[in-house]
Amino acid sequence: MANTYEMFSVRVTAVEQATPQIKRFTLAREDGQPMPAFTGGSHVIVQMKGADAKVFSNAYSLMSDPRNLSHYQIGVRLEEQSKGGSAYMHQQVEVGSLLTISTPNNLFALDAKAGRHVLIAGGIGITPFLSQLHELEGSDVPYELHYAFRSPEHGAFQGELADGAHGQNVRFYIDSLERRLDLAGLFAGLDEDAHVYVCGPKPLIDAVSDGAKKAGIADARVHFEQFAAAPASGGAFTLVLGRSGRELRVEEGMTIIQAIENVKAAQVDCLCREGVCGTCETAILEGEVEHFDQYLSDDEKASQQTMMLCVSRARGERLVIDL
User: Fold this and answer.
1) Per-residue pLDDT tens for 44-97?
2) Where does [2Fe-2S] cluster bind (predicted)?
3) In angstroms, rounded to a whole number, what is the distance separating the alpha carbons of residues 234 and 290?
4) Where, residue-wise, is CATH 3.10.20.30 in the chain?
5) CA 23, 258, 232: angle at the middle one, nearest 5?
6) CA distance 120 to 126
7) Which of 71, 167, 236, 276 has the least CB density, counted as fewest CB within 10 Å?
8) Binding site annotation covers 280?
9) Of 14, 165, 128, 95, residue with least CA distance to 147
10) Which CATH architecture has domain 7-106?
11) How many CB atoms lie within 10 A of CB 221?
């Protein structure tokens, strides 16, 4: 059921300040062996050990060339309301630091059936597309990247995109300069075999999803990724642990994992806490769930068989899970 990952140790070999809020980290295996193979759009889980033995786990897209396995690169944005992980990466991690990361997983791969790839990035959402651009080099399938950000200084990796091999395929949209992406115009001219990919803040993902629907683009041709989990929303409910019969109250604004951990009711493994790794997948015994993860497919969500405890919630007043 739940996904499993191999974890291994890496050393930070380079740190670059890409924008005032984004750093690029280069990681290499401590044992000198090649990194595990990956495909464009993949992510890894990074574990960081803070003070008082507190462990942070965040998912980050791999942005380096999948053909070069001597190292990985990730981009980390310092979040204003950091749960600890991004602040740790920015404030504590330097060249020579050791981290533990997972083997890669890909929930955002390029679709092999696409006749055209339309990539739409907002802010830090540029990172998965950088590895995909490497895959698209020399491809017969046309592609284009549309990259939106607030102001020139927040356009991470803008220079290398504009000056590199993909320069003629990249368009930049800068809010402060009144250059804004016209989604309706973009979608109006797409062929029926074009696929749309979007990564960035939730408002951008929602705008792309809504715009694609209005343009008649089938859901199967629209792909999105958003690592920052939406805040837990929805009313309080009763959670029943099916194996013990123990009942817990999951309050509004609280996740199921938090409710379980607050009273040490059960041991739950979860690497990412953002609905992308799959390690906390748990069977639903009674009740229905509002799914907020990105791990399960739409069909799996509709089947109401399993859920991710880190982000999803009960749809009603009571939920029984196999724990």
Assistant:
1) 999 988 767 678 889 999 999 999 999 999 999 998 776 778 999 999 999 999
2) 272, 277, 280, 310
3) 9
4) 237-321
5) 70
6) 8
7) 167
8) yes
9) 128
10) Beta Barrel (2.40)
11) 18
Q: What amino acid occupies position 220?
A: A
Annotated ligand binding at 277? The verdict is yes
Beta-bridge mates of residue 45:
59
The one-character DSSP state at 20 is: S
> What letter represents residue 200's amino acid?
G
Question: What is d(CA 157, CA 77) in angstroms, rounded to the nearest whole number?
Answer: 13
**Contact between residue 270 and residue 43 where contact means Cβ atoms under 8 Å apart:** no
The H or E element that residue 86 is part of is: helix 85-91
Question: Helix, strand or coil for residue 269?
Answer: coil
- Tokens 């790794």 locate to 277
Reported as a single tens digit per residue, the pLDDT across 258-285 is 999 999 999 998 888 889 999 999 999 9
The boundaries of every CATH 2.40.30.10 domain in the chain are 7-106
Q: Is 199 annotated as a binding residue?
A: no
Does the domain formed by 116-225 have CATH 3.40.50.80? yes
Distance between start and end Cα atoms, the chain? 13
Look at the domain 237-321 and name its fold: Ubiquitin-like (UB roll) (3.10.20)
Number of Cβ atoms within 10 Å of the Cβ of 267? 8
Distance (Å, rounded) from C-alpha 21 to C-alpha 123?
10
